Amino acid sequence: IRVMGSTGSGKTTFINLASGSELRTGSGLESCTNEVQTSLPFKVGGKQVVVLDTPGFDDTTMTDTDVLKIISAYLVAMYEQGTKLAGIIYMHRISDVRMSGTSKRNFRIFRELCGESTLSNVLIVTNMWGNVDPRIGEERERELATNDKLFRPVLEKGARLLRHDNTEASAHAVLRNLINNQAATLAIQHEIVEERKDLAHTAAGAELTRLLKEQVERYDEEVRKLRGELELATHAKDEARKELQEEMERKREEIERIQRDVGRMATDFMAEKTRLEDRIAEMEAENRR
């Protein structure tokens, strides 16, 4: 079972509660998951379960292309080893006043990773109910379930919306909704393994590329505005001009980084996949000793 969600949404805490593992957790909105982590095996409803913890697409220590590369390489390596997922959990903080643009972007890429045919294996799990008035939480939950721009489209196609109250019993109750599922092949696995697509040409890769190009366009516009402000500030204090120049340079560097990341997506994925395969081979060799 794989768990995804924004940085700070409680993914790792949920897994540790459910499994008794001690996976690294971050504090606040700072990420501590910069690779796929696996829980200790544990039993739910008489079945052995392993849960995968994945970084979010708004990770504080990695770019979105790095996150997609890491998650995709792990999922593809699993698939090629003959391991399929019983389900996918998407964690969402009910304490958030609204679903931010970053969260919406995160969820759009999540949808493309999964594909439409696997949505019956998807649970959207709201947590952090203790941080919000119950009535307000219920109103937010209702909006998430009924708004066409939020979770309604996936719920109509088979995904389910559940609550988690930060207890082991609650975590196990969530997992019981997945353990008897028929194992699913995710869209990203089928596209890369069966259709031989490179990462950039998968649905998830194409969606991320589109979102990053939109970001570049916004930064280009900001650079144009800063250049205009700089020209108007000809007679301003040196300190003010320096701040404008530094901000403009930061935006230019970010544009170059995004364009570089998009261009390297496919080759970086293959390098990460090779690294994972080598690691799996080493672990298997150690187990045979």
From TrEMBL:
It comes from Pisolithus tinctorius Marx 270. Residues 3-73 form the G domain. This is G domain-containing protein. GO terms for molecular function: GTP binding. Pfam families: MMR_HSR1. SUPFAM superfamilies: P-loop containing nucleoside triphosphate hydrolases. Residues 237-259 are annotated as: Disordered. It comes from the Eukaryota.
